[in-house]
């Protein structure tokens, strides 16, 4: 119970200090999210998705392992594979959505990343989440060069 309260307090502190968002180009861009996930009460997924105007968008998603459906997402717009240009931190409660898409029953996680910005991830398996569009459709191309998957760490 103490770990859950610590996680809630850390999330609240992040929201209070930076209004749910941080725009920065600093070395500790996701330290608060890492501290929350390090508590051992989270499943953490990481990966970099393609983007049009930057090298990619790196995601770090920490999901609470309890019934609270709490999440912490760090979204970094990358200048290169190793250098972030802008980083945003989000916390809240994710929704679990069961939906039939193209005749297949799937489970999705939906996160509100900023006002009126819902981001959806398909639960591919126990160790992979895949970024999908607002209609819950998978990307047309999901190859080694154009990968939309986040892997469990």
Question: What's this, in brief?
Answer:
InterPro entries: Cu-R_lipoprotein_NlpE. The protein is an alpha+beta fold and 153 residues long. The chain contains 2 helices and 9 strands, in the order H-H-E-E-E-E-E-E-E-E-E.
How many domains make up the coordinates? 1
Helicity range of the residues?
Answer: 10-25%
CATH class wording: Mainly Beta
Overall, the morphology is globular
Order of helices and strands: HHEEEEEEEEE
Number of strands: 9
Describe this structure in words.
With 153 residues, the chain is α+β, with helices and mostly antiparallel strands. It has a single domain (2-152), classed as Lipocalin, CATH 2.40.128.640. Helices cover 16% and strands 45% of the residues. The protein has a nine-stranded antiparallel beta sheet, covered by helices on one side. A hairpin with a 5-residue loop joins strand 6 (104-112) and strand 7. Helix 1 (2-18) runs antiparallel to helix 2 (31-38). The radius of gyration is 15 Å and the shape is globular. The model is unreliable at 1-39 (pLDDT under 50).
Give keywords.
alpha+beta; Lipocalin; 2 helices; 16% helix; disordered N terminus; Cu-R_lipoprotein_NlpE
SSE blueprint and pairings:
Blueprint (H helix, E strand, L loop, with lengths): L1 H17 L12 H8 L3 E8 L6 E9 L5 E9 L5 E10 L1 E7 L2 E9 L5 E8 L2 E5 L16 E4 L1
Antiparallel strand pairs: 1-2, 1-9, 2-3, 3-4, 5-6, 6-7, 7-8, 8-9
Helix pairs in contact: 1-2
């Amino acid at each position: 119970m103490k770990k859950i309260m610590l996680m809630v307090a850390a999330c609240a502190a992040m929201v209070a200090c930076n209004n749910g968002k941080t725009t920065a180009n600093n070395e500790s861009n996701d330290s608060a999210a890492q501290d929350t996930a390090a508590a051992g009460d989270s499943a953490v997924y990481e990966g970099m998705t393609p983007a049009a105007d930057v090298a990619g968008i790196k995601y770090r998603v920490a999901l609470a392992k309890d019934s609270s459906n709490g999440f912490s997402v760090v979204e970094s717009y990358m200048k290169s594979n190793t250098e972030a240009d802008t980083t945003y931190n989000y916390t809240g409660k994710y929704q679990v959505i069961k939906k039939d898409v193209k005749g297949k029953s799937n489970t999705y996680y939906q996160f509100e990343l900023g006002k009126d910005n819902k981001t959806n991830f398909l639960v591919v398996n126990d160790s992979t989440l895949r970024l999908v569009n607002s209609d819950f459709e998978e990307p047309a191309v999901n190859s080694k060069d154009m990968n939309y998957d986040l892997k469990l760490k």
